[in-house]
Amino acid sequence: MNYDDFARLGLSIDMTRGKPAPEQLDLSRGLIDEAGTVGHLSRDGIDCRNYGHLLGLPEARELGAELLGLSPSQVAAAGNSSLELMHDALSFAMLFGLPGGEPWRKSAKEVAFLCPVPGYDRHFAICEALGIRMIAVPLGDDGPDMDFVEAQVAADPSIKGIWCTPLYSNPTGTIYSEDVVRRLASMPTAAPDFRLFWDDAYRFHHLTERRHASPDIVGATLKSGYPDRALVFASLSKVTLAGGGVAFLASSPRNIDWWQRHVSVRTIGPDKLNQLRHVRFLRDRAGLERLMERHRALLRPKFDAVAATFEAMLADARGVSWSTPQGGYFVSLYTPDGLAKRTVALAAEAGIVLTPAGAAFPYRIDSRDTHLRIAPSFPSLADIELAAKGIALSLRRAIDERK
Ligand code: PMP
Protein backbone atom coordinates (compact mmCIF):
# COMPACT_ATOMS: atom_id res chain seq x y z
CA MET A 1 0.00 0.00 0.00
CA ASN A 2 1.36 3.47 -0.80
CA TYR A 3 0.57 6.78 0.92
CA ASP A 4 -2.29 7.68 -1.46
CA ASP A 5 -4.00 4.30 -1.01
CA PHE A 6 -3.66 4.68 2.75
CA ALA A 7 -5.12 8.20 2.72
CA ARG A 8 -8.13 6.91 0.76
CA LEU A 9 -9.01 4.59 3.67
CA GLY A 10 -10.49 7.67 5.35
CA LEU A 11 -9.28 6.72 8.84
CA SER A 12 -9.50 8.89 11.92
CA ILE A 13 -7.02 7.87 14.62
CA ASP A 14 -5.87 10.15 17.44
CA MET A 15 -2.27 9.50 18.52
CA THR A 16 -1.71 12.80 20.28
CA ARG A 17 -1.76 12.16 24.01
CA GLY A 18 -0.46 9.48 26.34
CA LYS A 19 -3.78 8.51 27.81
CA PRO A 20 -4.56 5.05 29.17
CA ALA A 21 -6.98 3.06 27.00
CA PRO A 22 -10.46 2.25 28.33
CA GLU A 23 -9.33 -1.39 28.88
CA GLN A 24 -6.63 -0.13 31.20
CA LEU A 25 -9.09 2.02 33.13
CA ASP A 26 -11.32 -1.04 33.46
CA LEU A 27 -8.55 -2.74 35.44
CA SER A 28 -9.35 -0.39 38.33
CA ARG A 29 -13.07 -0.87 38.22
CA GLY A 30 -12.91 -2.01 41.82
CA LEU A 31 -12.17 1.56 42.84
CA ILE A 32 -15.55 2.62 41.54
CA ASP A 33 -17.64 -0.50 42.13
CA GLU A 34 -16.47 -0.88 45.71
CA ALA A 35 -16.18 2.83 46.43
CA GLY A 36 -19.07 2.80 48.84
CA THR A 37 -18.04 -0.35 50.64
CA VAL A 38 -14.74 0.94 51.98
CA GLY A 39 -16.69 3.24 54.24
CA HIS A 40 -15.31 6.51 55.43
CA LEU A 41 -13.21 5.63 58.47
CA SER A 42 -9.47 5.33 58.11
CA ARG A 43 -7.41 2.76 59.95
CA ASP A 44 -6.94 5.26 62.78
CA GLY A 45 -10.56 6.31 62.87
CA ILE A 46 -10.19 9.50 60.82
CA ASP A 47 -13.50 10.49 59.24
CA CYS A 48 -12.37 10.82 55.63
CA ARG A 49 -15.52 12.71 54.73
CA ASN A 50 -14.39 15.72 56.67
CA TYR A 51 -11.81 18.47 56.16
CA GLY A 52 -8.23 18.32 57.26
CA HIS A 53 -5.04 16.26 57.04
CA LEU A 54 -3.33 18.60 54.66
CA LEU A 55 -0.46 16.20 53.96
CA GLY A 56 -2.83 13.32 53.29
CA LEU A 57 -4.28 10.35 55.09
CA PRO A 58 -1.57 8.63 57.15
CA GLU A 59 -2.02 5.28 55.39
CA ALA A 60 -1.91 7.00 51.98
CA ARG A 61 1.37 8.67 52.95
CA GLU A 62 2.63 5.28 54.13
CA LEU A 63 1.66 3.70 50.81
CA GLY A 64 3.40 6.54 48.96
CA ALA A 65 6.47 6.08 51.15
CA GLU A 66 6.55 2.33 50.46
CA LEU A 67 6.22 2.96 46.73
CA LEU A 68 8.92 5.62 46.73
CA GLY A 69 11.29 3.91 49.16
CA LEU A 70 11.15 6.79 51.65
CA SER A 71 9.71 7.41 55.09
CA PRO A 72 6.12 8.69 55.45
CA SER A 73 7.32 11.97 56.98
CA GLN A 74 9.01 12.75 53.65
CA VAL A 75 5.86 12.14 51.60
CA ALA A 76 2.65 14.13 51.11
CA ALA A 77 -0.36 12.42 49.53
CA ALA A 78 -2.38 14.94 47.57
CA GLY A 79 -5.07 15.23 44.93
CA ASN A 80 -5.40 13.47 41.62
CA SER A 81 -2.65 15.23 39.69
CA SER A 82 1.12 15.40 40.09
CA LEU A 83 1.24 18.08 37.41
CA GLU A 84 -0.80 20.22 39.76
CA LEU A 85 1.84 19.70 42.48
CA MET A 86 4.58 20.77 40.07
CA HIS A 87 2.58 23.84 39.12
CA ASP A 88 1.99 24.65 42.81
CA ALA A 89 5.63 24.20 43.74
CA LEU A 90 6.78 26.51 40.97
CA SER A 91 4.04 29.04 41.72
CA PHE A 92 4.94 29.09 45.41
CA ALA A 93 8.63 29.52 44.55
CA MET A 94 7.78 32.39 42.21
CA LEU A 95 5.46 34.14 44.66
CA PHE A 96 7.03 33.38 48.03
CA GLY A 97 10.46 31.81 47.43
CA LEU A 98 11.82 28.46 48.54
CA PRO A 99 12.97 27.87 52.15
CA GLY A 100 15.63 30.44 52.92
CA GLY A 101 15.39 32.09 49.47
CA GLU A 102 13.93 35.24 47.94
CA PRO A 103 10.70 35.06 45.91
CA TRP A 104 11.82 34.30 42.38
CA ARG A 105 9.64 37.09 41.02
CA LYS A 106 11.94 39.56 42.79
CA SER A 107 15.03 38.23 41.07
CA ALA A 108 16.93 40.97 39.22
CA LYS A 109 17.38 38.65 36.25
CA GLU A 110 14.48 36.59 34.89
CA VAL A 111 14.68 33.14 36.49
CA ALA A 112 15.41 30.18 34.24
CA PHE A 113 14.99 26.41 34.14
CA LEU A 114 17.02 23.81 32.31
CA CYS A 115 14.83 21.68 30.06
CA PRO A 116 16.26 18.43 28.73
CA VAL A 117 14.90 17.93 25.20
CA PRO A 118 12.90 16.31 23.85
CA GLY A 119 10.82 16.61 27.02
CA TYR A 120 7.30 16.79 28.42
CA ASP A 121 5.33 19.61 26.84
CA ARG A 122 3.31 20.32 29.98
CA HIS A 123 6.46 20.98 32.02
CA PHE A 124 7.37 23.60 29.47
CA ALA A 125 3.84 25.01 29.48
CA ILE A 126 4.09 25.65 33.25
CA CYS A 127 7.37 27.52 32.80
CA GLU A 128 5.94 29.54 29.95
CA ALA A 129 2.80 30.42 31.91
CA LEU A 130 4.79 31.56 34.94
CA GLY A 131 7.37 33.51 32.98
CA ILE A 132 10.28 31.17 33.67
CA ARG A 133 12.85 31.29 30.87
CA MET A 134 13.63 27.89 29.41
CA ILE A 135 17.07 26.71 28.37
CA ALA A 136 17.11 23.55 26.25
CA VAL A 137 19.60 20.87 27.29
CA PRO A 138 20.47 17.96 24.99
CA LEU A 139 19.17 14.65 26.37
CA GLY A 140 21.47 11.72 25.67
CA ASP A 141 20.91 7.99 26.07
CA ASP A 142 21.75 8.19 29.77
CA GLY A 143 20.15 11.50 30.72
CA PRO A 144 20.85 15.22 30.25
CA ASP A 145 24.24 16.33 28.92
CA MET A 146 25.87 16.80 32.31
CA ASP A 147 28.92 18.76 31.13
CA PHE A 148 26.51 21.36 29.76
CA VAL A 149 24.28 21.27 32.87
CA GLU A 150 27.16 21.62 35.32
CA ALA A 151 28.68 24.54 33.41
CA GLN A 152 25.35 26.38 33.23
CA VAL A 153 24.29 25.97 36.86
CA ALA A 154 27.74 26.84 38.19
CA ALA A 155 27.86 30.09 36.26
CA ASP A 156 24.36 31.52 36.45
CA PRO A 157 22.44 32.11 39.72
CA SER A 158 19.25 32.84 37.79
CA ILE A 159 19.04 29.14 36.83
CA LYS A 160 16.80 27.82 39.58
CA GLY A 161 16.07 24.28 38.50
CA ILE A 162 15.97 21.49 35.97
CA TRP A 163 13.14 19.23 34.83
CA CYS A 164 14.05 15.56 35.18
CA THR A 165 11.98 12.53 34.23
CA PRO A 166 14.53 9.98 35.40
CA LEU A 167 12.89 6.76 34.33
CA TYR A 168 11.35 6.10 30.91
CA SER A 169 11.32 9.83 30.10
CA ASN A 170 8.43 11.37 28.22
CA PRO A 171 8.84 11.14 25.23
CA THR A 172 12.20 9.41 24.68
CA GLY A 173 12.04 6.52 27.18
CA THR A 174 15.43 7.59 28.54
CA ILE A 175 16.70 5.94 31.72
CA TYR A 176 19.08 8.19 33.64
CA SER A 177 22.38 6.49 34.49
CA GLU A 178 23.74 6.29 38.03
CA ASP A 179 26.53 8.65 37.06
CA VAL A 180 24.11 11.29 35.77
CA VAL A 181 22.04 11.02 38.94
CA ARG A 182 25.15 11.35 41.12
CA ARG A 183 26.25 14.44 39.21
CA LEU A 184 22.80 16.06 39.42
CA ALA A 185 22.73 15.40 43.16
CA SER A 186 26.20 16.72 43.87
CA MET A 187 26.96 19.52 41.36
CA PRO A 188 27.70 22.96 42.79
CA THR A 189 25.10 25.54 41.74
CA ALA A 190 25.35 29.32 41.75
CA ALA A 191 21.73 29.52 42.94
CA PRO A 192 21.51 28.41 46.60
CA ASP A 193 17.83 27.58 46.07
CA PHE A 194 18.39 25.42 42.99
CA ARG A 195 15.97 22.46 42.71
CA LEU A 196 15.70 19.23 40.78
CA PHE A 197 12.08 18.93 39.66
CA TRP A 198 12.15 15.15 39.69
CA ASP A 199 9.06 13.91 37.86
CA ASP A 200 8.97 10.19 38.53
CA ALA A 201 5.79 9.79 36.45
CA TYR A 202 6.79 6.43 34.97
CA ARG A 203 8.31 4.84 38.02
CA PHE A 204 5.92 1.86 37.90
CA HIS A 205 5.38 1.69 34.15
CA HIS A 206 7.62 -1.06 32.82
CA LEU A 207 7.10 -2.47 29.35
CA THR A 208 9.55 -5.36 29.68
CA GLU A 209 10.09 -8.00 32.31
CA ARG A 210 12.93 -5.97 33.70
CA ARG A 211 11.64 -3.54 36.28
CA HIS A 212 14.21 -0.77 36.17
CA ALA A 213 14.46 0.98 39.53
CA SER A 214 14.10 4.74 39.82
CA PRO A 215 17.15 6.26 41.47
CA ASP A 216 16.86 7.32 45.11
CA ILE A 217 17.40 11.00 44.47
CA VAL A 218 16.38 12.16 47.93
CA GLY A 219 19.04 9.86 49.43
CA ALA A 220 21.62 10.94 46.83
CA THR A 221 21.13 14.67 47.49
CA LEU A 222 21.27 14.09 51.24
CA LYS A 223 24.56 12.23 50.85
CA SER A 224 25.97 15.06 48.74
CA GLY A 225 25.16 17.69 51.33
CA TYR A 226 22.20 19.20 49.44
CA PRO A 227 19.30 17.68 51.41
CA ASP A 228 16.70 20.11 50.03
CA ARG A 229 17.66 19.88 46.37
CA ALA A 230 15.10 17.36 45.08
CA LEU A 231 11.35 17.71 44.82
CA VAL A 232 10.00 14.31 43.77
CA PHE A 233 6.62 13.98 42.08
CA ALA A 234 4.84 10.68 41.56
CA SER A 235 1.36 9.69 40.52
CA LEU A 236 -1.15 6.89 40.40
CA SER A 237 -2.87 8.46 37.37
CA LYS A 238 -1.67 5.73 35.05
CA VAL A 239 -1.88 3.04 37.68
CA THR A 240 -5.58 3.42 38.49
CA LEU A 241 -7.61 6.23 36.93
CA ALA A 242 -5.99 8.99 34.90
CA GLY A 243 -8.49 11.57 36.13
CA GLY A 244 -8.96 10.13 39.60
CA GLY A 245 -5.70 8.80 41.01
CA VAL A 246 -3.56 10.05 43.90
CA ALA A 247 -0.43 12.17 43.48
CA PHE A 248 2.56 12.28 45.84
CA LEU A 249 5.15 14.90 46.66
CA ALA A 250 8.31 13.63 48.34
CA SER A 251 11.22 15.67 49.62
CA SER A 252 13.19 16.73 52.68
CA PRO A 253 11.23 17.59 55.85
CA ARG A 254 12.15 21.26 55.27
CA ASN A 255 10.62 21.28 51.79
CA ILE A 256 7.54 19.36 52.96
CA ASP A 257 7.02 21.95 55.73
CA TRP A 258 7.40 24.73 53.20
CA TRP A 259 4.88 23.11 50.89
CA GLN A 260 2.42 22.53 53.73
CA ARG A 261 2.65 26.17 54.79
CA HIS A 262 1.76 27.44 51.35
CA VAL A 263 -0.75 24.79 50.39
CA SER A 264 -2.69 25.42 53.60
CA VAL A 265 -3.74 28.74 52.08
CA ARG A 266 -4.98 27.00 48.95
CA THR A 267 -6.97 24.09 50.42
CA ILE A 268 -8.35 22.71 53.69
CA GLY A 269 -7.22 19.23 52.72
CA PRO A 270 -7.13 16.65 49.94
CA ASP A 271 -9.78 14.10 48.94
CA LYS A 272 -9.14 11.56 51.67
CA LEU A 273 -11.98 9.30 50.55
CA ASN A 274 -10.17 8.74 47.27
CA GLN A 275 -6.95 8.14 49.15
CA LEU A 276 -8.69 5.59 51.38
CA ARG A 277 -10.13 3.80 48.34
CA HIS A 278 -6.69 3.65 46.78
CA VAL A 279 -5.08 2.23 49.91
CA ARG A 280 -7.75 -0.45 50.19
CA PHE A 281 -7.64 -1.24 46.47
CA LEU A 282 -3.86 -1.36 45.93
CA ARG A 283 -2.90 -2.38 49.47
CA ASP A 284 0.87 -2.28 49.01
CA ARG A 285 3.72 -2.34 46.54
CA ALA A 286 3.02 -5.96 45.58
CA GLY A 287 -0.62 -5.08 44.85
CA LEU A 288 0.45 -2.20 42.65
CA GLU A 289 2.97 -4.35 40.81
CA ARG A 290 0.33 -6.99 40.07
CA LEU A 291 -1.89 -4.30 38.57
CA MET A 292 1.00 -2.88 36.53
CA GLU A 293 1.62 -6.34 35.07
CA ARG A 294 -1.90 -6.24 33.70
CA HIS A 295 -1.28 -2.79 32.21
CA ARG A 296 1.88 -4.14 30.64
CA ALA A 297 -0.04 -7.00 29.04
CA LEU A 298 -2.31 -4.46 27.35
CA LEU A 299 0.38 -1.93 26.43
CA ARG A 300 3.24 -4.12 25.29
CA PRO A 301 1.57 -5.42 22.08
CA LYS A 302 0.87 -1.82 21.04
CA PHE A 303 4.50 -0.76 21.48
CA ASP A 304 5.64 -3.96 19.76
CA ALA A 305 3.33 -3.20 16.83
CA VAL A 306 4.82 0.27 16.42
CA ALA A 307 8.38 -1.10 16.59
CA ALA A 308 7.67 -3.94 14.15
CA THR A 309 5.99 -1.63 11.63
CA PHE A 310 8.76 0.98 11.79
CA GLU A 311 11.37 -1.78 11.45
CA ALA A 312 9.61 -3.25 8.41
CA MET A 313 8.90 0.08 6.70
CA LEU A 314 11.61 2.51 7.81
CA ALA A 315 14.74 0.47 8.53
CA ASP A 316 16.25 1.40 5.15
CA ALA A 317 15.29 5.11 5.32
CA ARG A 318 18.42 7.21 5.79
CA GLY A 319 18.42 9.59 8.72
CA VAL A 320 15.38 7.95 10.33
CA SER A 321 15.49 6.39 13.80
CA TRP A 322 13.14 5.71 16.67
CA SER A 323 13.23 4.80 20.35
CA THR A 324 12.28 1.36 21.65
CA PRO A 325 11.33 2.26 25.21
CA GLN A 326 11.51 -0.21 28.05
CA GLY A 327 8.74 1.61 29.86
CA GLY A 328 6.58 4.71 29.89
CA TYR A 329 4.01 5.84 27.39
CA PHE A 330 5.82 7.17 24.32
CA VAL A 331 7.92 6.42 21.27
CA SER A 332 10.11 9.12 19.72
CA LEU A 333 10.50 9.01 15.96
CA TYR A 334 13.27 11.05 14.35
CA THR A 335 12.96 12.19 10.75
CA PRO A 336 15.77 13.56 8.59
CA ASP A 337 16.33 17.29 9.29
CA GLY A 338 13.43 19.52 8.35
CA LEU A 339 10.78 16.84 7.84
CA ALA A 340 8.94 16.43 11.15
CA LYS A 341 6.33 19.15 10.50
CA ARG A 342 5.71 17.91 6.97
CA THR A 343 5.28 14.34 8.22
CA VAL A 344 2.68 15.47 10.78
CA ALA A 345 0.80 17.36 8.05
CA LEU A 346 0.84 14.36 5.71
CA ALA A 347 -0.29 12.05 8.51
CA ALA A 348 -3.18 14.43 9.28
CA GLU A 349 -4.25 14.35 5.64
CA ALA A 350 -4.23 10.56 5.91
CA GLY A 351 -6.45 10.62 9.02
CA ILE A 352 -3.84 10.25 11.75
CA VAL A 353 -3.59 13.05 14.27
CA LEU A 354 -0.12 13.35 15.78
CA THR A 355 1.19 15.69 18.47
CA PRO A 356 2.34 18.83 16.64
CA ALA A 357 6.01 18.69 15.66
CA GLY A 358 8.08 20.73 18.10
CA ALA A 359 5.71 20.10 21.04
CA ALA A 360 8.45 18.37 23.03
CA PHE A 361 10.67 21.48 22.99
CA PRO A 362 10.59 24.75 24.95
CA TYR A 363 8.53 27.36 23.08
CA ARG A 364 7.64 24.52 20.64
CA ILE A 365 10.83 25.12 18.70
CA ASP A 366 12.59 22.01 17.43
CA SER A 367 15.32 23.84 15.57
CA ARG A 368 16.16 20.84 13.38
CA ASP A 369 12.49 19.88 12.89
CA THR A 370 13.18 16.17 13.32
CA HIS A 371 11.25 14.95 16.34
CA LEU A 372 7.84 13.27 16.47
CA ARG A 373 6.15 12.03 19.62
CA ILE A 374 4.08 8.89 19.15
CA ALA A 375 1.59 7.92 21.87
CA PRO A 376 0.48 4.32 21.30
CA SER A 377 -1.46 3.72 24.53
CA PHE A 378 -4.97 4.92 23.81
CA PRO A 379 -6.10 3.57 20.41
CA SER A 380 -6.93 -0.12 19.95
CA LEU A 381 -4.19 -2.50 18.81
CA ALA A 382 -5.77 -2.72 15.36
CA ASP A 383 -5.75 1.09 15.08
CA ILE A 384 -2.17 1.28 16.30
CA GLU A 385 -1.06 -1.15 13.61
CA LEU A 386 -2.78 1.00 10.98
CA ALA A 387 -1.55 4.27 12.46
CA ALA A 388 2.07 3.10 12.59
CA LYS A 389 1.80 2.15 8.92
CA GLY A 390 0.27 5.53 8.10
CA ILE A 391 3.02 7.40 9.98
CA ALA A 392 5.72 5.41 8.19
CA LEU A 393 4.08 6.05 4.81
CA SER A 394 3.74 9.76 5.61
CA LEU A 395 7.40 10.00 6.53
CA ARG A 396 8.46 8.14 3.37
CA ARG A 397 6.28 10.48 1.32
CA ALA A 398 7.89 13.50 3.01
CA ILE A 399 11.32 12.10 2.13
CA ASP A 400 10.25 11.41 -1.47
CA GLU A 401 8.83 14.92 -1.92
CA ARG A 402 12.25 16.28 -1.23
CA LYS A 403 14.06 14.20 -3.85
N1 PMP B 1 4.55 13.87 34.19
C1 PMP B 1 4.77 13.24 33.04
C2 PMP B 1 6.19 13.06 32.56
C3 PMP B 1 3.71 12.75 32.28
O1 PMP B 1 3.95 12.15 31.12
C4 PMP B 1 2.38 12.93 32.77
C5 PMP B 1 1.18 12.45 32.01
N2 PMP B 1 1.26 12.43 30.66
C6 PMP B 1 2.20 13.62 33.96
C7 PMP B 1 3.29 14.07 34.66
C8 PMP B 1 0.82 13.90 34.49
O2 PMP B 1 0.63 13.27 35.70
P1 PMP B 1 -0.69 13.52 36.58
O3 PMP B 1 -1.80 12.83 35.93
O4 PMP B 1 -0.32 12.92 37.89
O5 PMP B 1 -0.91 15.00 36.67
TrEMBL record:
InterPro entries: AspAT_Ic (IPR024551), PyrdxlP-dep_Trfase (IPR015424), PyrdxlP-dep_Trfase_major (IPR015421), PyrdxlP-dep_Trfase_small (IPR015422). Pfam families: Asp_aminotransf. GO terms for molecular function: L-aspartate:2-oxoglutarate aminotransferase activity. Gene3D superfamilies: Aspartate Aminotransferase, domain 1, Type I PLP-dependent aspartate aminotransferase-like (Major domain). It comes from the Bacteria. Keywords: Aminotransferase, Transferase. This is Aminotransferase. It comes from Trinickia symbiotica. The lineage of its organism: Bacteria, Pseudomonadati, Pseudomonadota, Betaproteobacteria, Burkholderiales.
